UniProtKB/TrEMBL annotation:
A Pfam family per the record: ZnuA
Gene3D superfamilies: Nitrogenase molybdenum iron protein domain
Localization (cell): Cell envelope
Gene Ontology biological process terms in this record: metal ion transport
Signal peptide: 1-25
Coarse class of the protein's main subcellular location: other
Native source species: Corynebacterium appendicis CIP 107643
Protein's recorded name: Zinc/manganese transport system substrate-binding protein
Alphabetic keyword roster: Metal-binding, Signal, Transport
GO molecular function terms listed in the Swiss-Prot or TrEMBL record: metal ion binding
CC terms in the record's Gene Ontology section: cell envelope
Length: 326
């Protein structure tokens, strides 16, 4: 897949924050194999499936044909900051199969159970590594390198917006629990095809949740680095960061702005207003689907909206973004 310089920049920053200076997470050999299923504990029934979040519960349900429950529910809970109650941890320990995202995202849950019961999209981290990640966010620490070295999609934590990762997890659920991946595979393949057909377009994001979705496509992330660092650190961007972002919008260097309405603040509102004032389309992309909407349906909706927006952009010519070319 193509991997643009700016996409590498985004991935590098996400990876560094996720690892919080501790190096690539590795609980053991199996934890570094995304979507690993492994062998099931003899005392556990692998068909007893639980997911950490509703997103992965929807994927597992599509495969098994059964309703899979999740620990974290609703649209107002950030899994990064979720503090599980004793009953939540008990459910995780009792589940024969746990479908998790991996990384620091839902580590407060999956770190209490045996790894061979866990199906995960990105590599698992230890409890200590997850705590280091949270400490870095809370204190706005940056001591990380933004080099453009070769990165891997496993470094992108919001893995459920990667069609490839959704298919990997679905396949692991089928292997471990049974069922069919036909529907998931068909839908993700259709979304991959739509994204692959889109022409070179400069996008910017108020958050990095779209990074896995645009991975390997011609949707080129040109989010200003200063703003991106602040977003990754979950800190307020500086006045200078916001001004630089708005300058890029007004200069015509950004074709589309992706915003997350679940985390709107004064900075994102300024950027969205600047985009609209300069006829730059604003596409909303939530971290989790709206209440009552299945994740796979929402995934289709997001891809369709992105594709329609790109296709309706005015033709600026092949050299319009030459100075920002990777």
């Amino acid at each position: 897949m193509k991997f643009t310089t700016t996409t590498r920049r985004t991935a590098a920053a996400i990876a560094a924050l996720t690892l919080a200076g501790s190096g690539l997470a590795a609980c053991n050999d199996s934890s570094n194999d995304p979507a690993a299923s492994g062998s099931t504990d003899g005392a556990a029934d692998s068909s007893d499936v639980l997911a950490t979040t509703s997103v992965w519960a929807d994927v597992a349900s599509a495969v098994t044909g059964n309703d899979v429950d999740s620990v974290i529910k609703g649209t107002d809970i950030d899994p990064h900051h979720f503090e599980p109650a004793a009953k939540d941890l008990a459910r995780v320990r009792e589940a024969g199969t746990l479908v998790a995202n991996g990384g620091a995202y839902d580590a407060s849950l999956y770190t209490v159970t045996e790894q061979d019961r866990i199906i995960h999209a990105v590599p698992l981290v230890s409890k200590e590594e997850a705590e280091a990640h949270m400490h870095a966010h809370e204190h706005g620490e940056e001591g990380h390198d933004h080099s453009h070295g070769e990165m891997d999609i496993d470094d992108l934590e919001h893995a459920w917006f990667s069609p490839a990762k959704v298919k990997e997890v679905a396949a692991a659920v089928k292997e471990k629990v049974g069922g069919s991946t036909d529907d998931v595979d068909k839908r993700m393949a259709a979304n991959e095809e739509k994204l692959a057909e889109l022409p070179h377009t400069h996008i910017a994001m108020t958050e990095t949740i779209a990074a896995p979705l645009v991975w390997g496509t011609e949707l080129h992330d040109v989010t200003p680095e200063g703003y991106m660092k602040a977003a990754l650190n979950e800190s307020e961007p500086s006045v200078q960061d916001i001004a630089e972002f708005i300058d890029e919008i007004e200069a015509g260097h950004i074709d589309m702005l992706i915003v997350n309405p679940q985390s709107a603040n004064s900075a994102t509102e300024q950027l969205a207003n600047a985009a609209r004032e300069n006829d730059v389309p604003v596409v909303e992309m939530r971290e989790t689907p709206p209440e009552g909407v299945n994740f796979l349906d929402y995934f289709d909706q997001v891809v369709n909206e992105l594709a329609e927006t790109v296709q309706n952009l005015p033709d600026k010519g092949e050299d319009a973004h030459a100075e920002h070319a990777a």
